[in-house]
Design a protein that fits this description.
The structure holds 2 protein chains of 2 kinds.
Chain A (H helix, E strand, L loop, with lengths): L3 H10 L2 H4 L2 H12 L2 H15 L3 H12 L6
Chain B lengths: L46 E2 L20 E4 L6 E6 L5 E6 L4 H12 L2 H21 L1 E3 H4 L13 H7 L2 E3 L2
Parallel strand pairs in B: 1-2
Antiparallel strand pairs in B: 2-3, 3-4, 5-6
The chains are: A mainly alpha, B alpha+beta.
């Protein structure tokens, strides 16, 4: 059975905009490492930098992918 | 069918012109080369803009491609560079211009003649060497030029023992 996570990672890695982006590659490395604490810290830092909470970011991501209910 | 050409000279034409052959001109033939456009290289561009204060810069203005965005303040007092860190935070570097006096000294240093600089250093080395060599002189050094020819029994050790150390310092 194909792993959805691997499938998504393959899609992201094959994107040339990400493959040629050192910053995005470093974020991908964190994702691939499986270190959940580091991933959480990274996500919180990005959310704080954009001035939003992780809950707000999650809601926006769900809306972007069409999974969440509209506010 | 055209009438056969009659040649009274039996194949030889004194004018050098043979009607069977098309006339040949030495005009240069145009040599067309397929046009290949020069490879386009995008000039390196800086991201950023002029700002009144750094607080008006939003995170969206900082590209997430590892490059820094430059935000010069309008009054020219400071330039900010912002870039994303590996941990998801934004690093801000502040560049402040040097005072005018410091800039003047830097240009004065750069205008100094490099040859004069080297000669000055050579003089210093020369003086140091002179100081080292003149500190102690032996009788051997004084007689170096007009030293009498030694006989075979006079060894280098004898010569060394004969010399006495004199202090010129």
């Amino acid at each position: 059975m194909p792993n959805f996570r691997d499938f998504a990672m393959g899609l992201i890695q094959n994107n040339p905009q990400i493959a040629n982006n050192p910053q995005a590659k470093s974020y991908l490395d964190v994702l691939q490492s499986g270190d959940s604490a580091r991933m959480k810290e990274l996500a919180m830092n990005i959310c704080n930098t954009y001035g939003m909470s992780t809950e707000q970011a999650g809601q926006q991501a769900m809306q972007f992918f069409g999974f969440g209910g509209r506010q | 069918m055209p009438a056969p050409y009659y040649n009274p000279y039996n194949g030889y034409n004194p004018n050098g012109y043979y009607p069977q052959m098309p006339p040949q001109y030495n005009s240069p033939q145009p040599n067309y080369q397929p046009y290949t456009p020069p490879a386009q290289t995008n000039p390196p561009s800086l991201s950023g803009r002029m700002v009144n204060s750094i607080s008006e810069v939003t995170p969206q203005e900082v590209p997430m491609n590892g490059e820094a965005s430059i935000f010069p303040q309008r009054d020219g007092s400071v330039i900010f560079a912002k870039m994303w860190n590996q941990d998801g935070t934004i690093k801000t570097v502040r560049y402040v211009p040097e005072p005018e006096g410091a800039l003047g000294n830097a240009t004065a240093d750069s205008k100094e003649d490099p040859i004069a600089l080297i000669l000055g250093r050579l003089d210093g080395i020369e003086k140091k060497i002179e100081g080292l060599t003149n500190r102690k002189k032996t009788k051997y050094d004084n007689y170096r030029g007009d030293r009498p020819r030694r006989n075979d029994n006079y060894s280098a050790r004898d010569e060394y023992e004969d010399s006495e150390v004199i202090d010129n310092a």
